[in-house]
Amino acid sequence: MIRSIGFMLALLVATPVQAQGDGAIGRESASGIPSPEAVLGHQPGVKTYRDGQVTQYLRTVAEQSDRVTYETIGYSHEGRPIDFFVVTSPDNHARLEDIRQQHLRLSKADASVAVGDDMPVVI
C-alpha cells in the first residue's frame, strides 16, 4: 500500500515541481500546489513518509487543485478514515458517473461495447 501511495505521490508532484524551472524544491508550483516538503517538512526520498502524512499531502493537493478530489469511503477497524482519491482532468471529473457506467458495461462477460478514444484508464 505504501509503495503505491508513494508512487502516486511521485506522479502528482513530478510535473508541478519541475514546472518551476529552477529545480527548487519546497515551494509552490506555478498552479499553487505546494510541494510535499512545504507541507510535510522534508523532500521525498530523504525520509520515509508515513501513510497518514501521504494522505495529509494528498488532501492538501485536493483542496487546491481541480484535478484531485477525495472522499472518505469508510473507516478501518481502528477508526482511521479510508480515503478514495480521484486524480484526473477537470473534464473527466465532470463526467465521472458516465465513465463509471462505461467501465461497468465493459466488465460484463457479454459486453459488446467498444472502447472509445475518450475512455480513460482506471486503476
Describe, in plain words, how this protein is organized in 3D:
The chain has 123 residues and is an alpha+beta fold. The protein has a domain at 48-107. Helix content is 42%, strand content 12%. It has five helices and two strands. It has a two-stranded antiparallel ribbon with strand order 1-2. Helix 1 packs across helix 3. The longest helix is centred in the first third of the chain and has 17 residues, at 2-18. The two termini are 14 Å apart.
Question: Mind sketching the topology for me?
Answer:
Elements: H1 2-18, H2 36-40, H3 51-64, E1 68-75, E2 81-87, H4 90-94, H5 96-106
Antiparallel strand pairs: 1-2
Helix pairs in contact: 1-3
Region (Disordered): 25-44
Signal peptide: 1-19
Pfam families: Peptidase_M14
Give the overall silhouette: extended
Average residue-wise pLDDT:
78
How far from one another are the termini?
14 Å
Helix segment tally: 5
Radius of gyration: 17 Å
Strand order of the largest sheet: 1-2
Q: What's the helix-strand series?
A: HHHEEHH
> Helix- and strand-based class?
alpha+beta
- The level of helicity is 40-55%
Q: In percent terms, what proportion of residues is strand?
A: 5-15%
Main β-sheet: number of strands, strand sense, barrel status? 2 strands, antiparallel
Number of strands: 2
pLDDT under 50 segments (min length 5)? 1-25
